[in-house]
Amino acid sequence: MYSAPSCDEVAALIVxxxxxxxxxxxxxxxxxxGRLQRIYETHALYWPLQYPLLFPYGEDGYQLxxxxxxxxxxxxxxxxxxxxxxxxxxxxxxIREHEDGIIHKCRRxxxxxxxxxxxxxxxxxxxxxxxxxxxxxxxxxxxxxEAMRRGDDEASSIGTRIILxxxxxxxKRYMFNRCQDAMAICKHFGYPDLFLTITCNPNWPEFxxxxxxxxxxxxxxxxxxxxxxxxxxKCLLSDLKEGVFFGPLNAGMYTIEFQKRGLPHAHMLLxxxxxxxxxxxxxxxxxxxxxxxxxxxxxxxxxxxxxxxxHGPCGALRPSSPCMKDGKCSKFYPKRFVDQTSFDEDGYPxxxxxxxxVTVKINDVDIDNRFVVPYNPLLLMKYQAHINLEFCxxxxxxxxxxxxxxxxxxxxTATVGERYDVGESSQVVDEIKQYYDCRYLSxxxxxxxxxxxxxxxxxxxxxxxxxxxxxxxxxxxxxxxSTTHVYLRNKDLLTMFTGWMMANRRFTEGRSLxxxxxxxxxxxxxxSREWKPRQRGFSIGRLxxxxxxxxxxxxxxxxxxxxxxxxxxxxxxxxxxVTYDTFSSSAASYRCGVRKGS
Length: 598
Hints:
alpha+beta; 5-stranded antiparallel beta sheet; 3-stranded antiparallel beta sheet; 29% helix
């Protein structure tokens, strides 16, 4: 996250020293009458005044009340009728045949404009979240009832403040949920088999044709690089799901990153099905290679491997290499020669690297198999890019992989001035400031987010299941609501957990399923707040962590509500004197902890 940039680009370094009084960026202009006027970023004249070279004719920028084409005026509940800032910027950055496109020809200034536009979008979103801190509050239903009984009739007097919700892309809660979803897939299908990294190649034929035609380097057109990489990524995902390279897949997930390298890349975790699992060293060698091919037998593959899959040279051959730290390569190259693939004590694979005498000269240095990055020949030949493929079906490296894939946005370490005073304000936890803390925003990431391409994706889907004690469900209400209103509105509403209990009464086929297994056969409808039998597809259920001591009371309450004679227990394991059982009945099923002897 704090690595140094390795490319020459225009980027934004966002620091978290803004207070709540900040209302975004602005421009102060003097009218012909001599009066000063403040123009904010949401004003139609902000763009032509901030970037006169990009808008030489003074074209209007974004306005707050731009309606959708063909949409009726007026407010429609649950439906947006106005164009958002992101949609307007995305529309403005499209390439049109009958438009000169001055914006796209300004090279470095275009990079600055793209980064500036996305900082506007993100600052607007965070500003709305910060402004709603005092109006949107959450509390469990029982707490609202207690406040109502003691006479606290104003909703503003109760509840906890939400700083940065899990729906905000890139926030800590967002990344934590993505990591937990990946762990849920791992729990259902086992450890992932392959870890794949594909990096955008600036020498792809699509980029070369564009550069020759427009005379603009691809680094100055992040919109083109993002579009092409997105198309290649969709093609790769289609091939993987169809089993073209590794056979059928059970599941998969990927994350798009940029890491201050100028171009996007994707990290993927793949779960192979039982028939195509890499169950032996021989099968691993068929899919993953870490050797230079024979240049006489495979000249095309040799050229691609030597062009994209060579690390370094580094170490004693080149001590000044960027990967060198404290006199050693941070990627642990060069590797040693081995005649057979094996695994070390930490679960990391040691691929076969035989000393066959095949070399390639790079920077006047002969490179052999010790510097080859593991790859798959078929993948490499089709996509012509740096595609690193690793075998990862070992328990010791799984948690690290999930954290690495979901580590969050890039940051930098910067020092301005000579002193840094730590005051009392540093002890205040502000998640918006933590998110802004030296945030590094590159043109490629800005363009990717403006186009609304997926940053994370997984298959199959993961259903996050909520559960709670009686009258302890979490409700959200407005600051102006009265506690009586909030309580009466929510006391009889079904939640996902209580709706699952009601579904067990209606559908006999669901009574043998635990709560976590339920999304595989049923679908939860948010509007009607009920579970219905699944017509197609598949989903994995995920429960949040609950301490065993907090489940004992709920476990006893559940015992009082089940039908007599319909109870069954299945012991799972015993840890630190606590036996974890699965309790099933016609009314409910719930996994919790029960102490020995109770």
